[in-house]
Amino acid sequence: MQVLKFGGTSVANAEAMLQVIEIVGKALEYDRTIVVTSAISGCTDTLVEIGRKASAGDASCFEVLRDLKQRHHDVIDELLPSGYRERTTDAVNALFAALENTVQGVLLLGELSPRSLEAIESFGELFSSRILTDKFLSLGVACHWLDARQIVRTTAGQADQKTTYRNVRAAVDAHVQTELFVVPGFIASDAEGHPTTLGRGGSDYTASLFAVGIHARRVEIWTDVPGIMTANPKVVPTARPIPNISYRAAQELSHFGAKVIYPPTIQPVVEEGIPIYVKDTFHPDEPGTLVEKNPPRVRDGVTGIAYSDRIALISLEGSGMVGVPGFSSRLFDALSREGINIILITQASSVHSMCIAVAETDAERARSAADNCFAYEISLGKINPLKVETGYSIVCVIGDDILGHSGATGMMLAALGRHSIPVRATAQGSSERNISVIVPSGRAQEAIRAIHHEFFDRFSTRVIHLFIAGYGRVGKALVKMLHDNAEAIARRSGKELRVCGLANSRHYVINTEGIDLSRAGEILSEGPSGSYPDALCSLSPENAVFVDCTANDEIGFRYPDLFHSGYSVVACNKIPFSGTLAQFRNLQREAKRSGVSLRYETTAGAALPVLVTLDRVVQSGDTLVRMDAVLSGTLNYLMDNYKGTGFEDLVEEARIKGYTEPDPNIDLSGVDVLRKILILSR
Ligand code: ADP
Ligand code: ASP
Ligand code: MG
Fold first, then answer.
1. pLDDT digits over 115-154, tens only?
2. What is the pTM of this model?
3. Could you identify the atom of ligand 1 that is nearest to the CA of residue 234?
4. Looking at domain 304-457, what is its CATH homologous superfamily?
5. Domain 463-603 is of which CATH architecture?
């Protein structure tokens, strides 16, 4: 047998459900099938909202309930043919009536106990599974609905696996002729028969419990993404599906926030070695991900990146800790008695302080547990009251044998360093599959993108994001070149040079999807005013190059900020390179430190590769004896053409021909020549 589980988006509306029907139809050609379904997307959230509103005495909960009912009726009306539609409508109405009673009770009592909340939450999967069952029946597919509440048993908030397996077997064995079963996911009941749930996202777990119960051949998790991906695609647009992953790595990814699989799902199937396929309901032909025991190895051992928000850091510190054993075990005991899960631990060998991460929701309980536990030492001043800091996220790089490959930690920290993302704590997980860092939540998504780029995108870069400053003569010419030659550039280099930012002294415009270069000037004039470098630093995209086509004397001071945000810089602006030697060296140093490039070939030599040639000659051991150069196109032009009168007009002519700096005084005074000499000699 096989188990196919469909998530909320896969049953969100009639159209999606039809897709499900098609997938199940094909699956039935191979084997008897159990379909586990989630509630329609957003339903469980709405049910929680209804419960909360009711307990707060807010009668608008009934409006929300009405809307939810309407959503289900819309699905029924569109999906089911008449003859079936009425029956299903009645059944779903009866469920809604029962829900309304429960909500009424909560409203009257003004109290939402965990038990009432679970009772309310349970309805979502009852609605959706009922609709799906009736749809199969209407198509003439013999199908049997199984009440998960009679089968999946929980004790003390956890699934009672043994009892559940037994119940699954009994329920299926009672219908030997049945080819297709439909099961509401997520819902269960406790030993006294009260409705409970397996926790948010728990339908995946229902699927794996059923799979083990019937010794299924395979489990398929059908969802709205093409598999388990290298990172959450909603955060990292370049994330890609992981074709094969081990049970352990998948478990680690889901445990640290990859919500595509609910964390407890994998554990039951491991012992039986049942493979899990994660597939995209809306692209069923895509291969998806296979979760199995021994997948093929991956290069540098890294499989994916995950993160969780709302992490609190708890620090225990004090001189009284030095050399006194047992502090950590007392702290862990105190936390474990409170049922608090420790996410990460760091402790230096001095044992003068230690730092642990817990979920923010556990932070206050952790604080009082620890303060009670160490009340005596605190009163003596031997250790300080526990320090709790909130607003952190944990970001993890995960892979089998990740630590067997040297350099993963270094790559991770280097990527964060280049983006100047502060790392508050690090740990190499207790398994050899995980390297974790704690960063401020505000920077977490940027951190994930930077790390993902480091491990997965860096060597397959296809798009270079250009951010051009200066839209005068040079800037315009560059934009025109890029526009006219885009295809040839892509063909020859295999890369797309995408202009994503443009600025002049008044406006700037940023669009990471690319600016329409045929209307560049117009688009720019409609852009906001303000600091372009500031806007860029807060963006910090991957493969980004800042192109300085200005003759501005301030902008060079911003290069280091841009470097730190991951931008390489290409400039024809001479000013940043012809300041003091210390400034010049500082630019080179900062670029190197951030791991980005700094190029200024076009500052001297009329855009011919003079600097790089000189550099190579010198680097390969030759000595430069003398340099002869005509260093000013403007002065050259003037001297060639000046006939004794009309100097001013001639300068204007040179300006129009594009020889001069924006301010020709810079040429006439010799400053421009001076700058070029400096750059060439440096
Ligand atoms: P379903 O309703 O089908 O159970 P979920 O919303 O629970 O779907 O899980 C799928 C979502 O998980 C995706 O839409 C995606 O936003 C999120 N997700 C987070 N991390 C990952 C990852 N590494 N790979 C794929 N999806 C991920
Ligand atoms: N409907 C439940 C939830 O939203 C269970 C699930 O979708 O897996 O959490
Ligand atoms: Mg889910």
1. 999 999 999 999 999 999 999 999 999 999 999 999 999 9
2. 0.73
3. 16
4. VC0802-like (3.30.2130.10)
5. 3-Layer(aba) Sandwich (3.40)
